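Bumping with the actual sequence this time:
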Amino acid sequence: MSLIKSALILGASGLVGRQLLQQLLDDPRYASVTCLVRRPLAKQQYRDPHNKLQPVVIDFEDPESYQGYFTVDHVYCCLGTTLKRAGSKQAFRKVDFEYVHVAAQLARAQRAKGFVWISAVGANAKSKHFYLRVKGELENAILRMPQLAHAAAVRPGVLIGEREGDERMLERVTANTLTLLKPIMVGPLKKYRAVYPEQVAREMIRLQPFS
């Protein structure tokens, strides 16, 4: 199979982002993978036997200065934080809405063939829950964006896995509980199952256009 696609990842150091990066590096359909990151990636975080990876440290406060990197086939956005880690609703919205929305705009401007990002199960712009409301508002903003080819969101439930340097005790307890309840979470409840980050990464790749 020929190497025909190029990819860009934002948020490659996160729980899903790390899995996505490795899957793209292992995927024979991709010839190059560019990562826009805040800090240099540690080499022990990935295997790159085909020398596909180009990590680029950027200032996320000035994304337009790096718009040339969006000239790829597929853009993947794994950016996200928590309200606790962000410190305020304004700071949370900046990461989970503004950064992702700007990434979508840059993908459109550079005519990327596909843009996939991580939303959340239950995302709804009318939700009373701040987190879900922001996720829903972002979905509306991106999916209604004209001339953005093949935009798609994945809506995972609680993620199973350890995040480096990020204490999320409640999330871990919830993930463990939902894992135990998985056998009875069927039908409408199936979408609320806890999921592994590698599953989310595979779904993101599946949603990209390869024709």
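The tokens above came from a reply further down the thread. The beta strands are 5-10, 30-37, 53-57, 74-77, 114-118, 151-154.
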